[in-house]
Amino acid sequence: MAQTRLHFTAGKIEADRIFAALDAAFEDEGLPLAVLEVDEDRDIHEVSLYADGDVDAVEARLKDILAGLALTKPIERETLPEIDWVARSLEGLKPVRAGRFFVHGAHDRDRRHSGDLAIEIEAGLAFGTGHHGTTAGCLEMLEKVVRRERPRNALDLGTGSAVLAIALARLAHIPVLATDIDPVAVKVAAANARLNHVKALVETVTAPGFHHPIFGRRAPFDLIVANILARPLMRLAPEMAKHIRLGGSLVLSGILDRQRDAVVSAYVGQSFRHVRTLHREGWVTIHLKR
């Protein structure tokens, strides 16, 4: 049966309120919900509710819930075709090359070449498959930094699927701490580390920012990579400075071209110096040194 997506936009605070109300109201039916950040600078978030069966009745309930929150939103509909999403995701996950790294799904193992630093990631598990410009940019930058500096202790902050942590472990043969605020992502990261035979080197931990005892035991780091978003990266600048070794390197991404200068300024204010910026698909990857 085809699904219908009911969707509308709101600011982040409103979107979070609405999501909580919808989650409680439709819990028994198990209807999927999602909130997507459309435009960070303009604070536009899209709230989606996926319905099948009597869509009119679901939309009427949705309007009642919004009214109960003293909100009125123009609700749009999108009819979604029936798709085998597992097959589609495998089809869409094409191998990616970034420097010596070759990121692929299980279906493309036979395309690995001798000399590749191959990283296998299952389709659709967690953010960061190497296909986004930020992840590919980080892989390219990490290869250069590791070759020049030979770090001995690294951190992947906001690891997602652990592509970058695995890359560091494979390339440098060093211990890597891989942390994420999302416990599901951390489970995926651990599974991917095992799949790529680097579980002994990659330690996965659920931690928001630097708030976990593990950092007291593992810091200071020679190299920190963080592929998250510009604003969290700017807020984390003082903590980055505390947890990196003097002379250590930061590789930062998740940053739009237009956000580059603000991020660099935040880190220059914490005694970092800019080394290089790599531009890729409208995103930048920045290398800084303490």
Question: Could you give a short description of this structure?
Answer:
The chain has 290 residues and is an alpha/beta fold. The chain has helices spanning 12-25, 55-68, 85-92, 133-149, 163-172, 183-195, 214-218, 230-235, 237-243, 260-268; strands spanning 3-10, 33-39, 44-51, 76-80, 96-98, 101-104, 117-120, 154-157, 176-180, 202-206, 221-227, 244-256, 273-280, 283-289. Strands 10-9-8-11-12-14-13 form a 7-stranded mixed beta sheet, sandwiched between helices. Strands 2-3-1-4 form a 4-stranded antiparallel beta sheet. A 3-stranded mixed beta sheet has the order 5-6-7, with helices on one face.
Describe this structure as you would to a colleague:
By secondary structure, the chain is α/β, with parallel strands linked by helices. It contains ten helices and 14 strands. The strands form three sheets. A seven-stranded mixed beta sheet has the order 10-9-8-11-12-14-13, sandwiched between helices. A four-stranded antiparallel beta sheet has the order 2-3-1-4. It has a three-stranded mixed beta sheet with strand order 5-6-7, covered by helices on one side. Helix 6 links the parallel strand 9 and strand 10. About 2% of the residues have low confidence.
